[in-house]
Amino acid sequence: MVEKETYHDDRLDRFFIWMLSRNMAKAVGKSTKLQGYDGLVDLSKKIVQGRNAKEQQAVVAKVLNSLVPSAVSTFIRTVFSPTQWVCELNAWFASLLFEWLVGSCEVREVEVVGLDQQVRTQRSGVHLKKCRYLEQSGCVSMCINMCKLPTQNFLTHKLGIPITLTPNFEDMSCEMVFGQIPPPFEEEAAYQQPCLIHHGAMPSLEPCPKVREA
């Protein structure tokens, strides 16, 4: 049995967790009695309850919009085109600023197909060694509906910086590539991903139904 990672959130980490949890609670109209990261995941589960995949993604989109004011997102989208430098800078910032949310991560060199359809090599990839959110939620659909797809949509369309997230459900790692336009979800391996195997449960070959709900 694989042991869970142990995290030691400092004061700044706890502030970011509190801020995100507060906005999630406002968006869903519910609260949680749990503290810290446990509370964040519990609020995620409350968002899932009674909502299909699209509705879950819509709630997360509302949360992301609340964290980045419209004027700021418009400025970013207007001023910063997704050049190699901008994508590499975003990868660097992401690797430093979001460990509290996703765990340890590092910048990597990747090949990217740009908006001009040209392939170039750049350091705009972020490798999440073991995603904290996926490990604690233990849920394929929460990973996809609460993180992967909303993040891709928000950065690609709201901020104008394409990004593709590719989770690995076997080792719980994830690859984030800034500058890479995400493919249609139906063409990705995650669309065929079965539910995670919990202790004592029988493995399933059927794709997780909660990522396909209309």
Short description:
This protein has 214 residues and is α+β, with helices and mostly antiparallel strands. It has 8 helices and 4 strands, in the order ααααααββααββ.
Proportion in helices = 40-55%
Q: What summary fits the major beta sheet? A: 4 strands, antiparallel
The strands making up the biggest β-sheet line up spatially as 1-2-4-3
**Mass-distribution shape:** globular
Structural class: alpha+beta
Compressed to H and E, one letter per element, the order equals HHHHHHEEHHEE
Number of domains in the coordinates? 1
Chain-wise SSE layout:
Blueprint: H1 11-28, H2 36-48, H3 53-67, H4 70-79, H5 84-97, H6 99-102, E1 105-113, E2 119-128, H7 132-137, H8 140-158, E3 163-168, E4 173-178
Characterize the structure shown.
It is a single chain. The model has no long low-confidence stretch (mean pLDDT 91). Helix content is 46%, strand content 14%. The protein is of the alpha+beta class and 214 residues long. It contains 8 helices and 4 strands; from the N terminus they run ααααααββααββ. 33% of the residues are buried. Helix 1 packs parallel to helix 2 (36-48). It has one domain (11-211). Strand 3 (163-168) and strand 4 (173-178) form a beta hairpin. The longest helix is centred in the C-terminal third of the chain and has 19 residues, at 140-158. It has helices at residues 11-28, 36-48, 53-67, 70-79, 84-97, 99-102, 132-137, 140-158; strands at 105-113, 119-128, 163-168, 173-178.
